[in-house]
Write a structure and sequence with these properties.
The protein is an alpha+beta fold. The protein has 2 domains: 2-114, Proliferating Cell Nuclear Antigen (Box), CATH 3.70.10.10; 132-244, Proliferating Cell Nuclear Antigen. 17% of the residues lie in helices and 45% in strands. It has helices spanning 9-20, 72-79, 138-149, 201-211; strands at residues 2-6, 25-31, 34-40, 46-53, 59-62, 66-71, 87-93, 98-104, 108-114, 132-137, 154-159, 163-169, 174-180, 186-191, 195-200, 217-222, 228-232, 239-244. The strands form 3 sheets. A 9-stranded antiparallel β-sheet has the order 6-2-3-4-18-17-16-10-14. Helix 1 packs antiparallel against helix 4. The longest helix has 12 residues, at 9-20. The protein is elongated. The N and C termini lie far apart (56 Å). The model has no long low-confidence stretch (mean pLDDT 93).
């Protein structure tokens, strides 16, 4: 049995939107303690690590551990119907293998969608030692990435003890974005050794844009030419973290 209720349906919509950036089909691990998802995008360049404990929900019932695979883009179509101050209830009918979604607001509407065959692949957490850690406002980070996207499809992120910089170079133009430690956008910066790495802006911009609705503050961790970890801090308990592989540049 699996049945949950949330008074804030928008919270679920924002989280599914963030997940949908990387994957179309998601296999959730559901236990009596909560819901988890760890999955890589089809190109295996990026990974999402999501977790919601049962305390996120107003009501949470799960009798035994199970896997539930859903078409995320189809689920998002239904969740886009969620309005302000509406609640949502999800229940899984294991006999018919369908998920029922009931949205309550000015009126009540119920949708149901099929579940898919669960993928058994276990995705491990990347084992990376990070040398630079920056805590920034998600909006400030999103604006900086949008600025870099104007001139290139990739960005080099650098950090030293005083600042974090983003360098983007295109065929015609270049851009340098500087975030100084203690500024409105860069809340904190810890650097064990100066680091720099280049990442795809198409991935970065989509991830940050999608996650901005679910988080006001982002922690970035990276090392020279290593994957970057973006942890989007949650108001309530829970985890929304992404890993993105670096773009290896040939000198």
């Amino acid at each position: 049995m699996f049945n949950v209720k949330m008074t804030d349906a928008k919270l679920l919509r924002d989280m599914i939107t963030a997940i949908s950036i990387l994957i179309d089909e998601a296999t959730f691990d559901i236990t009596p303690q909560g819901i988890k998802l760890r999955a890589m995008d089809p190109s295996r360049v990026a990974m999402v690590d999501f977790e919601w404990p049962q305390t996120i929900f107003d009501e949470y019932n799960c009798s035994e551990p199970m896997k539930m695979c859903l078409n995320i883009s189809e689920m998002l179509k239904l969740l886009r119907r969620v309005g302000k101050d509406e609640s949502i209830e999800l229940s899984l009918d294991e006999k018919t293998a369908r998920l029922k979604m009931t949205i309550r607001g000015k009126y009540v509407r119920t949708f149901n969608m099929p579940t898919l065959e669960a993928m058994e692949e276990e995705v491990p957490t990347p084992k990376v030692t990070f040398k630079a850690k920056a805590r920034a406002t998600t909006d400030g980070l999103r604006e900086a990435i949008e600025d870099a996207s104007l001139v290139s499809d990739h960005v080099r992120i650098e950090a030293d003890n005083e600042k974090m910089m983003m360098q983007a170079t295109g065929s015609l133009m270049g851009a340098t974005i500087e975030l100084k430690k203690g500024s409105d956008a860069l809340l904190n910066l810890e650097v064990k050794e100066p680091s720099k790495a280049t990442y795809s802006l198409s991935y970065l911009s989509e991830i940050v844009k999608a996650a901005s609705a679910a988080s006001a503050v982002t922690t970035l961790e990276f090392s020279s030419d290593m994957p970057i970890k973006l942890n989007f801090e949650q108001e309530k308990e829970g985890k929304l973290t992404y890993y993105l592989a670096p773009r290896i540049e040939v000198e």
